[in-house]
Structure formats: C-alpha cells, structure tokens
Amino acid sequence: MISQEQSISASTEQIEARRAAFNRCGDPKSLVSKQELQNALFERHTQQVQRQLDAAHVAIAGLGGLGSTIAVALTRIGVGHLHLVDFDRVDMSNLNRQQYFLKDLGQLKTEALRSNLAQINPYVEVRIDSVAVNEQNVASLFADDEIIAEAFDVPENKSILVNAVLEYLPHAQLLTASGMAGFGSSNTIETKRISEHFYFCGDGVTAPVPGEGLMAPRVGVVACHEANMITRLILGQNVA
C-alpha cells in the first residue's frame, strides 16, 4: 500500500501503474537454471571459494543506501543465505542512493529488495522480516545469522542494534558503519577491526548537511567496504 505522504504528487493512475509494474515481475527462475548460474560463479571464484559463499548466512539490518547495496553485492557473488530486516517502505527520496526502482515505490523495502535480488540470482535464499529492530527482539531476530551488517541511517538505531548484538549474540560477526555523507574523498573511508567480532566501516565523522547529504557514490563506497569485509569473514580472513 502506498501512503498518502508518499503519493502526494502522484496521480491515481501512476500509483496503480506502479502497483501493476511491481506485480508483473515474472519468475526469474524461468530465465536461468541454478546450474548455469553456479557454473558462472565457479568460473569466476573457483568451486572451493564458491562453496564457502554458498553456505554463509548473513543478516542485513536496514535496507537503505547501505543495506540494499550490501545485499546486491552479496547476491552478485552468490552468498547463499540472506536475511533482510526493515520495517520501512520505498519512497521517492530513496531513489537517489538505494537499490530500488520506480516500480517499487510504496512497497515494503524487504519485499521490493527480495524481488530485485531475485533478478540477479533467484537461487539465493532470501528470508525477510518486515519489523522494526529493538533491544527486545535482537537476540531472537538474528539468532540464526553468522554475520550481521548494521545498515541503519539513524544513530540511535545503530546503537540499539550494536549494543544488543554485542551483549546477546557475542559470537556473531558484527559490522557497523558511520561517516559517509556528501562527496568528500573516498580515500578517508576505511575498515577497522574494533574487537574480535566487531568491525567498523566509514570515515567516522562525515554527517549529512545541506548540500552534502547522503549520495549514492560515497554511501556505495562504505556499503562495499562492509560487503567486502563480510566476504573476507566468510572466507576466513578476519583482519581488516
């Protein structure tokens, strides 16, 4: 359902056309076999590496510019099991940096992103939870995930997830990110290992200000730092 706020400048016909476009997406498994996709990944990654990627379970909390881009990167390399968590819906202000399309406007981000990822690799197992993360549900929500990527926009939400994972799920690998706004140098963005199971990506200081908000290129750099560190953790490399 598209909210009044999201659709205030759209006509009824446009809203209906968006719904129809989203619902029209066919079954991508009709376009490609699992073996064809797997063979392509084997060719690029080798079977040994791909088998490890296939077996991995990764959660992404927050499906905005960071989370949706992380999910696309991990799907493209064939990470076998993704857990997408977000309560929000796609709106027009998301399209400047997030991995959604006009057909997705008004849809739950979890459902829209799952649909888009299936167009890349429909054989990745994607589990979704369309809920808000809070301190009370972190332990149960992420209990089955080996790696958890924090990808929220709001600092308070970041803190809730990070603190709860560190307290209740100390053996999970956790990644967080901060400092990615604007169009400053990409060379100030880095990945740091904070503790045995905790990693940080970003420049740590750059916050959105008028004229230098969250923009796709720099947000994407940080997202790919997270995705690359996740890949390294899956493959047994835990040094940032």
Question: Would you mind describing this structure in some detail?
Answer:
The protein has 240 residues and is α/β, with parallel strands linked by helices. Helix content is 38%, strand content 15%. The chain contains 8 helices and 7 strands, in the order αααβαβαβαβαβββα. It has helices at 12-23, 34-45, 47-55, 65-76, 109-118, 138-141, 155-168, 216-234, and strands at residues 57-61, 81-85, 125-129, 147-150, 173-177, 190-195, 198-202. A 7-stranded mixed β-sheet has the order 3-2-1-4-5-7-6, sandwiched between helices. Helix 7 links the parallel strand 4 and strand 5 (173-177). Helix 4 packs across helix 8. It is globular and about 55 Å long.
Please outline what is shown here.
The chain has 240 residues and is α/β, with parallel strands linked by helices. It has eight helices and seven strands; from the N terminus they run αααβαβαβαβαβββα.
Tell me the structural class: alpha/beta
**Major beta sheet, strand line-up:** 3-2-1-4-5-7-6
How much strand content do the residues show? Answer: 5-15%
Number of helices in the DSSP assignment: 8
What general outline do the C-alpha atoms trace? Answer: globular
Element order, helices and strands?
Answer: HHHEHEHEHEHEEEH
Termini Cα gap: 42 Å
pLDDT averaged over residues? 93
Rg (C-alpha, Å): 18 Å
Number of strands: 7
Extract low-pLDDT stretches.
Answer: 1-6
Largest sheet: 7 strands, mixed
